[in-house]
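User: Good morning. I'm curious how dioxothiomolybdenum(VI) ion would be positioned relative to this chain. Could you predict the structure with it bound?
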Amino acid sequence: MSTSTLTQSLGAPVTRLDGHAKVTGAAQYAYEYPVEGVVYVFPAVSTIARGRVTAVDAAAVLSRPGVLAVLDHTNAPRLKPGVDADLMVLQSPEVSYRGQIVAGVVATSLEAARRAAEALPISYEQEPHDVLLRDDDTVYTPETVNGMLPATFEVGDPDTALAAADVLVDARYTTPAEHAMPMEPHATLAVWDEERLTLYDSNQGPFAYGQLIAALFGIDASAVEVVAEYVGGGFGSKVLPRPSAVLAVQAARVVQRPVKIAMTRQQMFSLVTYRTPTIQRVRLGADREGRLTVVVHDSLSQSSRLKEYTENSTADAKLLYAAPNIRTVSRLSRLDVPTPGFFRAPGRTPGTFALESAMDELAYELGIDPVELRLRNEPTVDPGTGLEFSSRNLAACLREGAARFGWQHRDRAPRSRRDGRWLVGTGMASATHPVYIRASTAVARAEADGTFVVRVGATDIGTGARTAMAQVAADALGVPLERLRLEIGRASLGMAALAGGSMGTASWSWAVDKACRALVDKLGAYAGAVPEGGLEARADTAEDLEKQEALSRHAYGAQFVQLRVDTDTGEIRVDRMLGVFTAGRILNPRTARSQLVGAMTMGLSMALLEIGEPDPLFGDVVNHDLAGYHYAANADVPAIEAHWLEERDDRLNPVGGKGIGELGIVGTAAAVTNAFHHATGVRVRDLPLRIESAR
Ligand code: MOS
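Assistant: Good morning! Here's the predicted structure, ligand included:
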C-alpha cells in the first residue's frame, strides 16, 4: 500500500487510503456488488403533478420476455404509516408530484425492465396543480424548522428600531431550486434472506438509514444490514432513503430475488431531495457609524403536499453580527412538488446569500468598506442565544482574507475598473457553519500479530473521512497507519453520526479517539503483550455529549472574489476566489483543502449557473437533465485559494475539529454577486447571475 509512513499522523497531508482502490475500480459501489440471481426494477413515474392513478395495465407488459412482476399501489408490499410520508411508495393511488413512482417493473435485465416500465399503460384522474413558489395566502409559518428549531425568533423591538434607523436597507432576494447530482446516482441492491434484509446502498449514514428502512417495513432494526462502504457523493441528497430504495426492497420481497435499482439522471430531478427555492426579505438598520441596530430576516421556502420540510435560511441573521434587535421568520408554502431536503449547507447557503448581499448594500449606503462594516459589528456573545462562543475567529478570517486578497487597494466606487472590454470588480462575504456533533460508537481492537482494527459506522462520501479517521486512530494508538485497518460503512458497526451537516468527522473522531485510548489503557494492563484472541475496547460518546456545556460552537470564514464582465456580450468570468476559514483543528490539510475548494466551486456554480426551472404547465422541472441543468465545469473555475488559520478550541471534542464539509460554500454566492455589483454597478438579487444581468 502506498500509505504514508508518518507516525505523527494527525495534521499530516496523508493521501487518501482508498485512492488506489477507487482509481483502479477495486472499490465496490452499491450497484456493483456481485450477487447471484440478481434482477432489476425500473420505476414508472407519474406524468401528472396532482391527482390519482385510475389504472395500471400490468397485463400489457407482463408477457414480455424477462418481465417478472409489475408492482403498483394495488399489490405492493404494505409499509408502516407515520415513518416518512415521502417514502410511502405505492401505498395509495394518490399522486402528489410529477415524477413520483406510480409503478415498478421487475425484469431479468435492466433493459427489459426499463422498456416495459416506459411502455406500461397508466391512466390518471388529473387535478389542477401548482408548482410555483410565491408569497400568497397559501403561505404559513410552520411550528418548527427541520423538525426541531423554532420557526420564529425575536429579541428587542425590531419594528421600533426599523423606524428609528439612520440608514436602512430593505431588499428582496430569491434563490432557485438547486438539484443534487452526485457522480454516483442513488443506487440500491436489496437482498432478502428470510426475514433479514441486506441493502447495498449509496447513502450518507448506514446506521440511521437501516433504522428508518426497518421501521418502514415493520421489522427489527437488527434484521437490517446496510452496506455503504464507498459512496460517490451525496450533497445531502443521500441522508434519507429515497423512494427508489423502498421500491427495490418491495420488489425483492415480491419476486424473492435480489433486486437492483439505480436512478437515471432525469429521475433524480424528482426522486431526490433538492434545495427549495427561496424568497427572502432582509431589513438592516444601522447608525451612521455602521453599527447595526436591527436585523430582520424573513425567508419563504416550499415543500411538498406529502411532508413538511422548511429550509432554515434565517439562522445566520441570529449569529453573524451584533444587533440589539433581531427578528427572523421562516415561512412555508406547500405545493405539488417533490419534497425538498438537505442540500449543501442547508439554509445557511441561501440565507447567507441574502444576508451578506444586504450587508454589502448597507456598506454602500453608509460609505463604509464592506470588510470594515463587518468588523464593526463583531459580537462578544452569540446574539441569538446569548451563549459564550467556544471560539470565534470571523474577524481574523476577514483581516487575513483582506490582506491575502489585496483588498486594501480597492477603489470602492462601482464600475471604476476596466480592462479593455471587461469591467472588473471585487466582492466579499462572511461565512459560518454550525458545529454539529452527534453521539457515535466505535470499537478498537488489538490483534495478537501486532496490528489493530478500528470499527466505526462512518461513511466516506468522497470527503476523505476514512483517511482522517485512520489518522485519528493511529495517533491515539501511537502506531503508524500501516499497522491499522479501518472498517466503516456498515449499519452493523453500530450507532454513528451521518456524513451530513458537516458532523461526520467531528463526531466519529471523538468515538474513535476514545475507543483507541481505552484500548491503550487495556493493553497497559497486559504490558503491551496482546493476549491470544486479541483485545478490544468500545466507546460511546453519548454520555460525553450530555455533559457538554452549552456554548455557541461554529466555524467561520471570509470569502473574496474577483470577476469580470464583458461589456459587449455580458459574459461573466470569475477570475479569482479566495477563502480564509477557521474550523478548529485541521486533521488532514490535503483532504481539508479539497473539501473547501470543492465547496467554493459549488458556490460559484450556484452563483453563475444553477437553476431548476419549474414548468407551471406540466409541473415538471423543465431542464431535468445534465444538458439543461448546468454545473460549473473546469473551464468556469478560476484560481481558487482556500486558507485556514490555526484555531485551538478545547471545548468541541477531544480531537478538536469543527467540521469543514459545508463551510466553504456559505458566503460564496454573495461574494460573487457583490463583486458583480462592484464591477457593473448593477445589484443582482435573484440567483443565478445571467448574461443579461448587467443590462
Ligand atoms: Mo449535508 S447538505 O447536511 O449532507
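The CA atoms of residues 380 and 388 lie 8 Å apart. DSSP finds 15 helices and 27 strands in the chain.
Let me know if you'd like a different ligand tried.
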